[in-house]
Queue: 2 jobs
Job 1
Amino acid sequence: MILPEAVQTFKPKIILPKGFVLIVDTREQAPLFDVCEWCVRKALKQGDYSIVGFEDVIAIERKNISDLLSSLGVGRKRFEKELERLRGYEWKGLVIEGTESQLYTPSRFSSIHPNSIYQSICSMEVRGFHVYYAKDREKARWWVLSRLAKYYKHKREK
């Protein structure tokens, strides 16, 4: 099936609310954003991305496929502790840089069975994580920025 050109070229219009400042954790190895007037690098207790003033209530973790497989395999205990520390957060997300089919395709880099990966993701979702598979970094940036900007706008309207 070929999608109409408008769908293939869609780019969301993301409006940053006045006062919005995105935080990229200083430990983030491959940041989705560069420092600018609305983006700073700062150490976060949890996650890779958050918002100034809301660091203890909203966080987004970014993983590429190999990072995630490592976190679900040999780094599982550490990863589970990270997830547990996010338990009290009002909003938490995981953006996976890669498609769902890439994640579940057996890999020569991991011995984790696809069903184990699937069940781990399901477990995260039922514990309140919003999970998004980004087919490329641009889509990952859109997802992270739009969720954080909407959260900030929503909280400022209250």
Job 2
Amino acid sequence: MLQFYNNNISAIINVILFYIAISSPVDFITNIILKRSLSRQDRENIMKNLPNFKSELLLSFMDIGQKSALIYSQMSWYELATYTMEESDGVFSKVHLHIGDVVTIHEEDSGECYAIIKGIFKYKGNDDKYYAFITIDWFDNINRIHNVLKCPLFRIQTSQDIRWRRIFPISIIDHVQKVHFVYDTKIDLWIKNNYYFTAI
């Protein structure tokens, strides 16, 4: 009887933890749900490539309007996130983010930029609400064209390259999978496939 009771309590706690609301820092994103917890090994692999985790996380909280030093350290890592986004024309769309997805981010200085999602996590803010964040590696345009395909070539940001931030609030993403990259093992570079498109 005690074992049955403990199993039920454990299941209830898991359901409650799953449904702890993720707050959105912007009005156009709602219903944020994070799914499939990462293993400890996967979390450690992500963290070892984030040498400036605390300072970048603080900058991300500043991006969403929280300017003070972080007082909590509660966070959890996930494989995917879903949310509803209201487009500028008033249309609502369901967005699915997975680790490994290529996303488009509008950067003030460079315009449209591309990145690959390396991690998705929630972190407790000073207002006692949880917020969703992503960690990314940027695609660096090396201003070269593939000889055969005539498509631009990119290099992926290395863990030692700290020129660009890697941690951002989930609201930074403009588009998911609107571009397609192919890795060329022979030249150790990524090809932006300009001929890839989504059928209507």
